[in-house]
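Archive entry. Fields below.
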Amino acid sequence: MSTPSAESEIRVPSNPEADAAFLADFTTMSAFGATAAGGVERQAATDEDIANRRWLAEWLIDRGFTVAYDRVGNMFGLYEFAPGRPYVLAGSHMDSQPRGGKYDGAYGVLAAAHSLDRLRRYYDTHPEAVVNNIAVVNWFNEEGSRFKPSMQGSGVFTGKISLTVALETEDSAGVTVFEALSAANMLGEHDVFDSGEHVNDDDLLPIASYAEMHIEQGRELDKAGMIMGIVDSTWGANKYELSVLGHQAHTGATAIADRQDALYGAAQVVVGLRELADSYGDDLHTSCGQLTVIPNSPVVVAREVEMHMDLRSPDDAILEEADAKLNRLFAEIEVRADVKIEKRFAHTWKGHTYTPEGVSLSTKVIEDLGVSHMHVRTRAGHDSTNMKDIVPTVMLFIPSVDGVSHAENEFTHDDDMIVGVDVLTETLARMVEGAL
Amino acid sequence: MSTPSAESEIRVPSNPEADAAFLADFTTMSAFGATAAGGVERQAATDEDIANRRWLAEWLIDRGFTVAYDRVGNMFGLYEFAPGRPYVLAGSHMDSQPRGGKYDGAYGVLAAAHSLDRLRRYYDTHPEAVVNNIAVVNWFNEEGSRFKPSMQGSGVFTGKISLTVALETEDSAGVTVFEALSAANMLGEHDVFDSGEHVNDDDLLPIASYAEMHIEQGRELDKAGMIMGIVDSTWGANKYELSVLGHQAHTGATAIADRQDALYGAAQVVVGLRELADSYGDDLHTSCGQLTVIPNSPVVVAREVEMHMDLRSPDDAILEEADAKLNRLFAEIEVRADVKIEKRFAHTWKGHTYTPEGVSLSTKVIEDLGVSHMHVRTRAGHDSTNMKDIVPTVMLFIPSVDGVSHAENEFTHDDDMIVGVDVLTETLARMVEGAL
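PREDICTED_STRUCTURE:
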């Protein structure tokens, strides 16, 4: 274990060569699935995602890491300083939304890879300080656009999603997660880490802690002019699947009074959902991003609409109250539009605090490095939202200009990315030496 | 020309054998693309539609008709009593909506085929009464679900839609009308009839008149307990394509105030459209049956929504006024949802009366046959909506139980179908003898 005084020394200071190498690699990686408008389209286990993963695997192997995949396609780059010691994991996800941004997730994986590679070189010559081994992680399918739900790889890893259910999940063309990952040869026969789901399996590696760096995907840091956000808590979320059931009819010939128009019902849900958010100010976010009309013909009154919607709040009591209000709203819409609304919980998580010792550790590192910082709460889910429930976890943000995310014009300054890598490197160094 | 007294004699009276043959053929035809719930799915130029067309072609050839296709795949069964005489056309369409009903269109084609086959046998032995030749017609793509717009085959035939544009129309998989019809060998190199679009082409056949029988797709006849509806006018329609343009963003992380949510804008359009209809009582129908969200991911605020919508009214002035109100509504929504709305006319037709002589002729026939009847206005578009603008036209309805249409539970009683065939047969007989 390191002494308190030693923790204030910077182990692996920034250097221009390392910074240039990081930016060059980020440019290389952003070419996988690059879109004309400057974003990326690299949905989980598509050709673009697989090519990017292959590139990362080579990068890791070239630097002495061992690459392994678990049974849901999470990808690990392992480096062992001392046999039998637990592992510090660091990473994020490389998959993207359709026409998404190039920073979301991908930045965090590359930052972890560069940070841990710098630590590899440092601790190979300072073995006396080492307490834990290290592993880069690229979580499978964080985005949940091709295969639902989001945070699937870390969800299975942390026991929140069934492995079998995840592998059988189909995309819109009927391809399963199992098929897509098997075809790429990126599905392990065994797991790699003991995440608490396994009993007495000596082959599985123990985990010490987890760290993740991500762009903020909001405008708090950008507005405040701060570089580092230390995530101290998450918003809770309720995600729902809705079916609005009406009756198919001719748009021209059917009198308005006779219609059971599923799309009219669904439209009232979308409008009511926004009004619900407006009634809570900034304490509730509501969204509907996916809505599919059946049969979706110009001259047919829709018989069914399938929707995904979510409620997010920093306050679990508000989520509960809003859920009850939704039920009343749906009952009103059922009468007004003469439709049936079926509501199912798709995925839900309570608001939670992040590991307080992780917040303290990263705050100390950021202060030692003299970087501007503030505490933030994350509205979006991240793989760390899952990981913090099983191991001590650090979650850090760098700014997104104008808060743009899940869009091709998502943008973060190179300088901020570089500072983020330095902060992550130093935080991970202290985690390797036994902090957390 | 026939004398008035002769017009009151029934040429080809109903007989049990003909009725049974009709119902048997209707059952056979309804098997093409039959769905488990009792409907059909036979969208234009799909395998099911093509198989049904092949069946009809054989049926016609077996009875001495000549089968021909024009340059947009309209299908004709020609029978010539006397060279050089114009043709009486009768028919409808055999394509269906996705999971549509088995009566819509298909009944009218089969009724025309049986009626004209009965007339063929009658006039082959009564040549002295013949003024016109006869042709069954099965219009291509009346429904407009696979290839837009609706009434495409009759639209090209009557010069309202460009042949080139129609042939280049793509379905959602990128297959064109030209490709789909060519693959089935159902695209003629030349046209068959002179519909007024051609100048001095001696090979094209002249047209005398047109008759169409269809289910009502509304509940006027069913409510009134009448068997025959004599269509005296159409509702006008404005069909629009809309693009609602927002900005893609993360549903979790993006503050509500920062969103430019295309789906929120589109939902307000759908709700506003219904409110517009409600404000006019029965004088205005509004519908949105097709709405496509881009990118349609659960955690992404939609950047774009593509919609098809229509306004229909018996009163052209109301259509014009409603169009102006829509423009104001869209301007309000653009502000409220921070989106852009682009509105394009996709297709439009004015309210029009049907040929008054056609109304008189069919009324006289129905009275001679002693069948209950009333005048009706059609809200739906039909191929006759196009045909009535170029030749004298008769349009007749039989009841739809509960007004159901464009749905698998569309239903018309066998007895009503039989009466419809008798009325059509007698109406066409008088048209063959020169009425209209």
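CURATOR_NOTE: Chain B touches chain A through 72 residues (CB under 8 Å).
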